[in-house]
Design the sequence.
């Protein structure tokens, strides 16, 4: 074998090592790119710091579930908070299921088997998708449920986030379940811009989240999912098994947070950050103090 041929495996090895993510000397917590996720990421990070006495690195504003999943599998983050319905359909590619306990069991089993990821105990609330309209329109047109939209021609322009437009539990299935028809294609935008567009009358209805603080603050109305289209979306922390062995304090933190956050409390924290422009760290510290954490 020539010297050049012998060097090739070494070069390949060096390139693979160079591409591999550096192993951090401390826990790295991730979050998606919207307010609630950043709040939950900060909550998990603060609780791990309290349990371990060490510093946690925040890697927030990751662009959606797919990127968070890739970051987990590659070891670039150790933990983040996901929603069971999203995990079931968008990540694990499983059929829709509306039984909350069964969804949680399926998600826990498949994450462990496929990825070596532990699903922690639920934080205590569910954040489902919500079809949201302006309060004035809801009152004037008698809109209470998603089905009511099919009889309201004035609700003709739809706004959605990029993920909702594509995911299996998103727009296509919702439109089929309810027979929804809008004028032209939906306007897709960052989640943080949806409510601004609704308030500015650029769209008439948006696919938001049930715990968004802006719904109450801006006099919007979340329509009832009367055909029970959406699966359960329980907020649960995910952690790499490898990270859990290295830092058992992550497990301690997850147990402390189990069942501690109600939907109303989540809404209040989202509102404090989004509308009152308060610092996320301060909002989370005050919440933890109230809970005796």
Sequence:
């Amino acid at each position: 074998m020539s010297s050049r041929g012998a060097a090739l495996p070494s070069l390949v090895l060096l390139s693979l090592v160079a591409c591999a993510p550096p192993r951090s000397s401390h826990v790295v917590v991730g979050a998606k790119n919207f307010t609630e996720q950043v709040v939950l990421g900060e909550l998990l990070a603060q609780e791990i710091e309290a349990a371990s006495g060490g510093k946690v690195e925040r890697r927030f504003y990751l662009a959606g579930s797919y990127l968070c999943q890739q970051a987990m599998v590659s070891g670039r983050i150790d933990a983040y908070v996901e929603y069971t319905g999203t995990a079931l359909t968008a990540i694990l590619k499983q059929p829709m299921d509306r039984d909350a306990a069964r969804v949680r069991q399926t998600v826990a089993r498949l994450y462990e088997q496929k990825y070596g990821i532990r699903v922690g105990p639920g934080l205590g609330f569910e954040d489902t998708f919500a079809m949201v309209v302006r309060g004035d329109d809801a009152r004037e047109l008698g809109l209470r449920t998603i089905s009511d939209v099919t009889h309201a021609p004035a609700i003709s322009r739809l706004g959605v986030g990029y993920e909702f437009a594509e995911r299996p539990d998103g727009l296509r299935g919702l439109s089929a379940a309810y027979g929804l028809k809008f004028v032209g294609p939906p306007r897709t935008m960052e989640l943080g811009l949806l409510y601004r567009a609704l308030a500015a009358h650029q769209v008439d209805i948006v696919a938001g989240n049930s715990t968004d603080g802006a719904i109450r603050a801006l006099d919007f109305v979340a329509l009832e999912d009367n055909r029970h289209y959406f699966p359960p979306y329980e907020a649960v922390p995910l952690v790499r098994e490898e990270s859990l062995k290295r830092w058992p304090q992550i497990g301690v933190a997850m147990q402390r947070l189990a069942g501690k956050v109600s939907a109303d409390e989540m809404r209040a924290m989202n509102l404090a950050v989004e509308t009152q422009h308060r610092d996320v760290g301060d909002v989370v510290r005050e919440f933890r103090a109230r809970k005796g954490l």
